[in-house]
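Progress report, Aim 2. The chain analyzed during this reporting quarter is listed below.
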Amino acid sequence: MAQTTLGSTGTRVSEFALGTAMFGREFDGGVATTASEAHDILDAFADAGGSFVDTANTYADGESERIVGDWLAKRDRGDFVVASKLYWNQVAADESLSRRAIRAEIEGTLDRLGTDYLDVYYIHRWDDETPIEETLRTLDRLVDEGKVDYLGISTAAAWKLTKALWTSDVEGLERFEVTQPKFNAAYRDPVRDYLDVAADQGLAVCPYSPLEGGLLTGKYARDADAPEGSRGDVSDWDVSERQWAVADAVEAVADEEDATPAQVALRWLADHERVTAPILGARTVEQIEENLGVLDVSLAVDQRERITDAYA
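Predicted structure tokens for the chain:
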């Protein structure tokens, strides 16, 4: 797996990150990905050269962090860039980014991961009730204390990201260096301004939902019911015509390249000029192995353009 620089930082990461939202999560009367299965997924990712692991305090109420921590304990911690997030708090009584909540949550996260520090600490959502200066000043102190290396932000409006960066500049505080928006071949317009800010400020972009909730895997069809138990089956999922057009273009290119639609969609995203390291999500070893097949896929200019133009 190729390595890339994380935005304007000096840290190198693998060109893909591994998402762990399903690790330990209760799902359909069972567990989406057991600890043993999760460790096999992490092994496959690491064996392929993956070094960037993404989790959060809210994933399975902290169980995801515990599972990752148990796996890290058997590895060299320095070989991996570990990111976690806070907002939906597990220790603090409220959902906020207040000084009190951040202090409580970082200790819980570090304890569950069994590590002294995080490479990246994201705010999972924006907190409208807490002044951004309070949030940033508290996070800044975590960096000073060596508990966090870099700060990140996930979902927020572009103007809020701009406000946070301006506050950091004016107050002399650590700024967000890494962003994690939803972005993929079939979901672009809502995040266009956000990506413009990230590009202008030299921020790393590590998108989640690279396959648009499964739409770009090829398992859905316009005129057929969604597979039983799939996201399209269990949720109210509205797919626009432009998204179907992208799915069709991805499948056509996949046929040409003897690849899966998921691999083509991941390659399109990884090669995007605004993207640093997309986040691969997998519930099973079979899924991560299929996704890792992207490492053997390359797209011609005209193939990329067909996928890009399908959205427009």
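The CA atoms of residues 83 and 120 lie 4 Å apart. The longest strand covers residues 118-125. These observations will guide the mutagenesis work planned for the next reporting period.
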